[in-house]
Amino acid sequence: MKYVKFGTSDFKVSQLSLGCMSMSGAYGPADDEESIATLHRAFDLGINFIDTSASYGNGHNHDLIRRALQGRRDQVIIHSKSGSIRTPDGESHGGGSPDYLTSVCERSLKSLGIETLDIFCLSRVDTNVPVEESVGAMARLVEQGKVRHIALSEAGPDSIRKANAVHPIVSLQMAYSVWERDAENGNLDACRQHGMSFMAYSALGRGFLAGLFHELNELPAEDNRRNSPRFQHLERGREILAEIESLAAEKSATPAQVSLAWVLAQGEEIIPIPGCKSRAHLEDNLRAIEIELTPADLARLDALMPPDPAKGPREQVTRS
Question: Could you give all domains of the chain from N- to C-terminal order, each with its CATH number?
Answer without folding.
Answer: 3-205+268-279 (3.20.20.100)
